[in-house]
Amino acid sequence: MNLYLPNYKDKARLAIVVKEEDETIEHEQLVIGEKFAYFKSDNLHIIGEDLTVLKNLCSGDIITISDNGLLYKLFSPKDDDATIYMTGHCNSNCIMCPTSDGERKKSEGMPTEWLLEFIDILPENISHIAVTGGEPTLRLDDFLSVMSVMAKKFTRTETLLLTNGRSFSSTKLVNKLVSACPSYMTVAIPLHGHNSILHDSITRAEGSFVQTVRGIENLLQAGVAVEVRVVVSKLNIRHLTAIAELISKKFSRVRVVNFVGLETRGNCAVNIEQVYVNYSDAFVAMKEAILLLMKNGIDVGIYNFPLCMVNRGYWALCKKSITPEKIRFNNECGKCQVKSICGGFFNTTLSMVKPVVRPILEKV
């Protein structure tokens, strides 16, 4: 969540929100009361309209604030999960990526000391952590340090590493990861095609298919749990069964294959005519691939698809995968009987594509 404090003109900070000072916390504290807010380290008070903005924060929230007042909430204890954003940089440039070229080039991620401090502030009993980018392994030394620190602190926490898998074509790096990684880690890697022609045309990075395939093979060989993601677009919709066949033959030990709907922002928004396919058509194209994978004993999930666009027999595969603050519903969804269990739409999808919904009116 992004907030803005227009009158803040001070140093950048990482802090934990508290209602009253806590001497047991060694990190910077943003103390927020009914009529006041201040940073504990130097007693810098937040006043006026900036104080009103902070009323959206809760005790236990972890925030960063830039020197010009841009405040970002990194973690809320209400969510019981956290994201560790390593960098925006990536060695691929996927045509349907929800991140724009500009975002990838500009986003350096948090300073090393902040990354490690953020991990130190997080509660030990947190249920889930995602390590992501960009491509997190491009910041290699920091990446390995983060994984090592997490492994020591979060001994029971499920960890999801989101990567394009190319760096793990190096067995040396895979071995370093295995020696440093948390106990309950899954590596999620997108496979965009069944051959280099299709995959590389989507990543717009020559050689990426060969590296990704080798990376998946190396991770599986090392005993690392792997999730394969297939982002469904107009570019690969006719090849989903072929992708499923490749996975079944070469990567039968993957933990799960998730079919993923598009988020129409960034590159995806720029190239929407080339890449966007409506949910209903995408699901029809996915069915044969899903059944093939299941026939071969591979678990399947469906991400970012509203339930009304998926046959009822496949609802058990659908996950509420969209980040809560990004979820939106069409006005027509108000009368749907399954809205409470539906993952909804990305806000950008509703505004750009305006999909036609088919509310489920009968009780389920």
Tell me what the CATH architecture of the largest domain is: Alpha-Beta Barrel
N-C termini distance: 34 Å
What form results from the Cα inertia axes? Answer: globular
Q: What composes the largest sheet?
A: 8 strands, parallel
Supply the CATH superfamily name of the largest domain.
Answer: Aldolase class I
Characterization of the model:
Strands 8-9-10-11-12-13-14-15 form an 8-stranded parallel sheet, with helices on one face. 30% of the residues lie in helices and 20% in strands. The chain folds into 2 domains: 2-73, no CATH class; 79-303, TIM Barrel (Alpha-Beta Barrel). The protein contains 12 helices and 17 strands. α8 runs parallel beside α11 (279-295). The chain is globular.
Overview in brief:
It is built from twelve helices and 17 strands. It has 364 residues and is α/β, with parallel strands linked by helices. Helix 3 runs parallel beside helix 4 (140-153), helix 4 runs parallel beside helix 5 and helix 8 packs parallel to helix 11.
